[in-house]
């Protein structure tokens, strides 16, 4: 196995496109596909081959990387690619798919003779573009030489969580991390909405917490997107955040716990999407605090 691989990237949205671009920059041969071809075509300028079908994209691939909306989408696309899959190829599944879906994906990988890696990533548009994601990975130690160059190209570090991708240990850690991120995002939005209606100067609030244990870089970053009207292009879209919040709620239900904050987060994201903010950064959940769409 050489360090220069043929990598099929299925799904070139915000994250997938950035990952594909960093793979080409690292010297790998990239074959990219997206449902909406126009989203993949800019990658041709970086040297990627743009495929018309999933089967075309995986032709000759050493590694197949999926970065799609959810588990069912990933399974559908890989099934469409199945006729051209090379037995023994590695499947790096980076979609945030949920615990149940990961098992289904791993089962299908086994049927097709693929080496399955559960490998969601932490990070949004900016770290993805800079190749600074954190890769959470689970899969057989014996095949890691095949996927390590891919992880090195897209991430700053890789955190291995286990040897059985079907167990979803990487996905479980991702859901825990996302539960905190989504809760913090919605808390920031509610703070902004509350100081607005109460007539409080936002700088007085930020000055009050500055440098103390309540201060938080993430709070300031997400608040700035709203205050400075920089919600597009999204680093992580409202619609995707809603999907992840519902996966978190579902995981809690499976194991007998209530996750009231995650459930409320999902509803806030859904309201913001219904107001027309679905493609904006998830900080736009701020607008869910108001009955009608607002532009201020």
Largest sheet: 6 strands, parallel
Q: For this structure, what is the CATH class of the largest domain?
A: Alpha Beta
* Shape verdict: globular
Number of domains as seen in the coordinates: 2
List the secondary-structure elements in sequence, H or E: EHEHEHEHEHEEHEHEHHHHH
Give an account of the 3D structure.
With 296 residues, the chain is α/β, with parallel strands linked by helices. The chain has 2 domains: 6-167, NAD(P)-binding Rossmann-like Domain (Rossmann fold); 172-289, N-(1-d-carboxylethyl)-l-norvaline Dehydrogenase, domain 2 (Orthogonal Bundle), CATH 1.10.1040.10. The protein has 12 helices and 9 strands. The strands form 2 sheets. A 6-stranded parallel sheet has the order 3-2-1-4-5-6, with helices on both faces. The chain has a 3-stranded mixed sheet with strand order 7-8-9. Helix 8 (169-198) packs across helix 10 (217-227), helix 8 (169-198) packs across helix 12 (260-277) and helix 11 (238-254) packs antiparallel against helix 12. The N and C termini lie far apart (54 Å). The model has no long low-confidence stretch (mean pLDDT 96).
Question: Which key phrases capture this entry?
Answer:
single chain; 296 residues; alpha/beta; Rossmann fold; N-(1-d-carboxylethyl)-l-norvaline Dehydrogenase, domain 2; six-stranded parallel beta sheet; three-stranded mixed beta sheet; 12 helices; 49% helix
Summarize the structure in short:
The protein is an alpha/beta fold and 296 residues long. Helix content is 49%, strand content 14%. The strands form two sheets. It has a six-stranded parallel beta sheet with strand order 3-2-1-4-5-6, sandwiched between helices. A three-stranded mixed beta sheet has the order 7-8-9.
């Amino acid at each position: 196995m050489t360090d220069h691989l043929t990598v099929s990237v299925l799904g070139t949205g915000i994250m997938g496109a950035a990952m594909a671009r960093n793979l080409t920059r690292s010297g790998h041969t990239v074959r990219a596909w997206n449902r909406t071809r126009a989203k993949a075509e800019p990658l041709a300028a970086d040297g990627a081959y743009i495929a018309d079908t999933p089967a075309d994209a995986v032709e000759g691939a050493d590694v197949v990387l999926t970065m799609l909306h959810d588990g069912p989408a990933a399974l559908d696309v890989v099934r469409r690619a199945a006729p051209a899959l090379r037995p023994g190829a590695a499947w790096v599944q980076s979609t945030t798919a949920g615990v149940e879906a990961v098992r289904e994906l791993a089962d299908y990988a086994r049927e097709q003779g693929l080496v399955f890696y559960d490998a969601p990533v932490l990070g949004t548009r900016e770290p993805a573009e800079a190749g600074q994601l954190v890769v959470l990975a689970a899969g057989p130690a014996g095949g890691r030489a095949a996927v390590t160059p891919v992880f090195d190209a897209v991430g700053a570090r890789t955190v291995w969580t286990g040897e059985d991708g079907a167990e979803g240990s990487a996905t479980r850690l991702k859901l825990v991390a996302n539960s905190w991120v989504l809760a913090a995002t919605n808390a920031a939005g509610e703070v902004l909405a509350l100081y607005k209606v109460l007539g409080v100067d936002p700088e007085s609030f930020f000055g009050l917490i500055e440098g103390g244990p309540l201060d938080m870089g993430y709070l300031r970053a997400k608040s700035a997107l709203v205050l400075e009207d920089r919600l597009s292009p999204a680093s992580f879209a409202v619609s995707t955040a809603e999907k992840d919040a519902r996966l978190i709620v579902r995981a809690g239900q499976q194991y007998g716990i209530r996750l009231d904050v995650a459930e409320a987060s999902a509803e806030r994201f859904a309201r913001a999407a219904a107001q027309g903010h679905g493609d904006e950064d998830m900080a736009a959940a701020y607008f869910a605090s108001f009955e009608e769409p607002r532009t201020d």
